[in-house]
Amino acid sequence: MCGLSEIQTVGVVGAGTMGNGIAQVAATAGYDVVMRDIEQRFVDNGLDSIESSLSRLDAKDELDESPETIRERIAGTTALGDFADADLVVEAALEDMEVKQDIFADLEDVTDSDVVLATNTSTLSITTIASATDREELVVGLHFMNPVPIMAGVEVVTGEKTDAAVTNLAHAFAEDLGKETWESDDKPGFVTNRVLMPWINEGIRAYDEGVASKEDMDKGMKLGTNVPMGPLELADHIGLDICLDASETLHEELGDRYKPAYLLKRKVAAGDLGKKTGKGFYEYE
Prior knowledge:
Low-confidence stretches: none
Strand content: 5-15%
CATH architecture of the largest domain: 3-Layer(aba) Sandwich
Radius of gyration: 19 Å
Number of domains: 2
CATH superfamily of the largest domain: NAD(P)-binding Rossmann-like Domain
CATH topology of the largest domain: Rossmann fold
């Protein structure tokens, strides 16, 4: 296993919102990054998102280097074999256990045997993901928050067989990206989503039952509890489909207290997924 000082190249599986965000912060911290997705159009979209994000941060004078310098550290690819020289790989693919296990089995084939494999899963079992490999002790959860370049925290999740040195490396790596960390055992939802998802679902239920308008629901929670976003606004920013997937996983694992709100399911079925589709509980340009 590489120590932090030996990590030069970081592989990122997935060029979507989370993947390109992780790639961006790793490159900003000075790492060379290989970002991979299954189709070139997804890779291109991810690279475009990174360039836009870097431009916004540069306009606010929040970068120590030029956007061009940071961008040059990121290579996009559709070939998993391009992770052959990676010293650490972070998976940020679909929140689907079968998909993740297939990816980890493939990563084991294309990376050196001592390379740490991290997953950005927000609810799925680290232990079960790791079981698809013969290096379970080198698999760890690195749960970044969305949007990755802005949010200050990363949740480090330890699987049943995660080595303590790997856990320490995960903390150190995230901190080197400028993040603060906290640690969770491999229990459903970990710290964040175990508490966050029922809060969001209850906000949706209360709105659906006519307790308050969506604006007052969010305003009341922001001013009354000092959170930056209320439950409906936050759900739109996370993605209603992601909220539903997380809630369904927790419902299956922990019972009816995590049952997804009906209105959440209805909006996802209608394709109104929040900010990324232009409409969720609110409308976006």
